Design the sequence.
């Protein structure tokens, strides 16, 4: 899966492109965990180009979040498309992770 | 050493896995000794014949034939030029007519200029593993199939179709007192063996806490706490919807934990999607759960399901969705007719344009008749 990575000071902005499903979850997981292993403590998961997320995809996001919390870092989600917004609403993902409207708003969380 | 490597056929014949090679037209050109040992077919029986003829008769676990174009692992490897990444379990027919479960991998064979000129399939008899899984399936079904309550005022029906031999969905119904029934439909993240093992944990969590369903939000909070403990350091979760129905008044109280929104299909065929959102089970302790109250009229039906029942894509990559599922149900003249699970499954397959559905499917129907 294509993942665009940008840095804004000490915040890493990851933008996965396409679908986070059974075929792509593993490569996204490897990327996310590598970023954390490299010492990143602040991550924004920019979902503007994410079209679909399966429950396996949700698990990977949670796994990343739990790793980040262990090192007292923070993960923020932002720019959800309609379908992703619905999934995060049904699962009340905002009880686990902050969700912002835009990347700019997400940056203010740090 | 050089002597050993003079003939690749000698090496292939010495493998414990069966090996056969097809040309681009899927005509079998080589059949190894181990392939003969596993299937009983001798090279003379099969070499020169098309592998899609009535030789191996590959089928999936549900008996769907795989020897057509798109579902044949070997054909797919030759068309895509890619080796199978995850071994596929297929059932093949031995010479004596016996069905043999096999783990199959397939790879394209290229000539010097890189052109695909054939394919090679290796297979292994996995009967012992499958027998174990079949036993696991029996254990799981035993835990799932409970006596559904019999009450002239309402009827519970359930439908369960695991994607693999064992599945990650769980459902349960319990009479709480004279008038009230508690129910749960839950879906462990992932499917297969790991998810199935967790459903067995759900069985004990359910029996420990089901009496709390007089307040579904209270029940959900306890189940969540318990699952956080059970999952421990493993990152996983369950999605669920639970609730309680009062058979006297048709009043239903529902709590969601990331499960799909339940559907009410009224006797007059109008539909309502019940929004009952809530945090996934087993991720974090002390998250709040809420209750939604809905009223059923006589003849109305409440449906709870796992996401496998509507997260189905068609050939044009469109998602069926809950609304699509509801449309199919009403096209089957539901709720006037009884819920016909075979017909529903057929419609879902038709939509998906596939030979089998890609996830576990559970549907629980609560049909309310009233006094």
Sequence:
């Amino acid at each position: 899966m294509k993942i665009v990575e940008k840095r804004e000071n000490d915040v890493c902005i990851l933008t996965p492109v396409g679908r986070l499903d059974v075929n792509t979850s593993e490569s996204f997981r490897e990327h996310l965990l590598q970023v954390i292993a490299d010492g990143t403590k602040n991550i924004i998961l920019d979902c503007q180009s994410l079209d679909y997320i399966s429950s396996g995809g949700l698990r990977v996001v949670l796994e990343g979040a739990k790793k980040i919390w262990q090192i007292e870092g923070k993960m923020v989600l932002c720019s959800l498309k309609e379908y992703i917004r619905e999934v995060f609403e049904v699962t009340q993902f905002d009880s686990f992770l902050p969700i912002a409207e835009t990347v700019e708003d997400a940056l203010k969380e740090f | 050493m050089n002597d050993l490597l003079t003939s690749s056929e000698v090496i292939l014949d010495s493998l414990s896995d069966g090996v056969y090679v097809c040309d681009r037209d899927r005509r079998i050109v080589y059949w190894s000794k181990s392939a003969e040992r596993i299937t009983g077919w001798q090279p003379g029986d099969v070499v020169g014949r098309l592998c899609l003829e009535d030789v191996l008769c590959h089928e999936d676990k549900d008996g769907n034939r795989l020897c057509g174009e798109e579902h044949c692992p070997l054909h797919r490897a030759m068309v895509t030029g890619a080796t199978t990444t995850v071994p596929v379990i297929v059932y093949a027919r031995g010479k004596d007519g016996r069905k043999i479960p096999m783990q199959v991998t397939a790879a394209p064979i290229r000539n010097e200029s890189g052109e695909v000129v054939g394919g090679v399939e290796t297979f292994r008899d996995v009967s012992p593993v499958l027998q174990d899984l079949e036993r696991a399936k029996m254990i799981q079904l035993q835990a799932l199939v409970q006596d559904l309550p019999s009450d002239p005022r309402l009827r519970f029906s359930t439908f369960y179709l695991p994607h693999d031999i064992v599945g990650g969905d769980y459902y349960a119904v319990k009479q709480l007192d004279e008038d009230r029934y508690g129910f749960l439909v839950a879906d462990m993240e992932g499917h297969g063996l790991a998810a199935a093992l967790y459903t067995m944990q759900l069985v004990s969590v359910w029996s420990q806490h089901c009496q709390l369903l007089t307040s579904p939000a209270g029940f959900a909070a306890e189940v969540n706490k318990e699952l956080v403990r059970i999952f421990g350091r493993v990152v996983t979760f369950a999605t669920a919807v639970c609730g309680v129905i009062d058979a006297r008044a048709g009043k239903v109280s529902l709590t969601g934990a990331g499960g799909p929104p339940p559907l009410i299909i009224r006797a007059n065929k109008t539909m309502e999607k019940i929004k009952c959102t809530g945090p996934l089970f087993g991720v974090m302790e002390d998250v709040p759960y809420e209750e939604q109250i809905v009223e059923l009229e006589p003849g109305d039906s409440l449906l709870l399901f796992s996401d496998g029942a509507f997260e189905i894509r068609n050939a044009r990559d469109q998602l069926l969705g809950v609304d699509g599922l509801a449309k199919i149900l009403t096209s089957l003249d539901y709720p006037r007719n009884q819920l016909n699970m075979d017909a529903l499954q057929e419609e879902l397959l038709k939509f998906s344009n596939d030979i089998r559905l890609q996830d576990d499917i559970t549907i629980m129907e609560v049909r309310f008749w009233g006094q």
